[in-house]
Write a structure and sequence with these properties.
Helix content: 40-55%
Order of helices and strands: HEHHEEHHHEEEHEEEHHHHHHHH
Number of helices: 15
Strand content: 5-15%
Number of strands: 9
Strand order of the largest sheet: 4-5-6-7-8-9
Largest sheet: 6 strands, mixed
Distance between the termini: 48 Å
Length: about 400
Amino acid sequence: MAQLTEVIVKALKNLGGKGTLKEIFGELQQINPSPRTWPGEVRLTIEANSSDSRSFKGEDLFRRDGNGVWALRNWEGKKSAPPSIREVIIQKSVNYSIPDSIETISSYLQTIKEYREYYNPASPGWVEYIREFFHVMGFRTEDLDPRHIFLKEMVGRDSVKAIVGILDPGKNFEEMTPGMNQESRLLTLAGQYNVSWGIFTDGLQLRVINYHSPRGQGIFFWPDLEEIIENQKLERFFPVFEIFSAIKDNRTKLPPANRKQEHVTIKQPTIHRKLEPTEGTKYPEQAIRVILDNVSFEKYIENSRKMRVRPEINERWLTRIVPNDLQRNGREGAENYLAVYGRGIMAPKLIQLALKAEMEGYPEMALGFWLKAYELDTGEKVDSSQYPPLI
């Protein structure tokens, strides 16, 4: 843990003394890409070394610097802003027993949104986003099989806190019949591993079940999870956070179940490629891979252009690509960039690098990034000689 703390301090210094959890984690990965560190582990380490956190138990190295931002304690900079009027109203109106501050919970919601913007529901990497959601919520994940994940304590004991059933994106949760199919399987696993909590999610909706509650009183359902995250609806996120706090703390007293969502307006999720069931498909990753295999390279690029370029990509362009003049070396420049900085890189970031290269007027370099992104998303290599530089 001490070694991780030192790397976080170095990452913050590289960022100018402060940054969001997403920025800190990104910089940490550049400093020390191996071994793999979970985002939730980084957050817990920061909180354990900040007197601004209820989890403080180490050195007072970090401080909060506004909503979702952490800074070095002894680094000169802007002091934390006081709670907004909206935060005070929320804090007084919410009846959930959450020990964390409004600012802390808001930063979790913001971090989840930042991860969401990197992933596409129609990509095989979507399952990774689901894992990151649970990491932010304070859990370590461990795969049981391609459809089920264990949630465990981030640090400490190895006990299973909950079992997650992963569903195909866009599935109608209301059509799930209690005791049948997926629910029956999850209930069986919960009994086998002596777990009180079962969770169903496709990353867009969330359903949580407490198996030790009287029938119908331990079901919590958020069909609008995607909208809560996208629009940063803190009031709606509070009960989600409360349930996961209860799971972590083995709490028996639960808030009222919300199985019926009569006044919720569900926004259609952003899915760039239509998902259709395929005969013989067993797992969601396989279903998605089959569909992507049938997407041409040109169509893949067209669908991916809806993604926006994030600020850190602009920063990477100015500090890593331009100083080394990689943009003038076309596809070879993209390959050289990936050879140095591409360890563990995923398709969403490659897409943004391709879009940035196009914006700057270097279509040949963009093509190099597009080819690698397509290969990661579909598992297929494209004969690049068939494609002239992009315009």
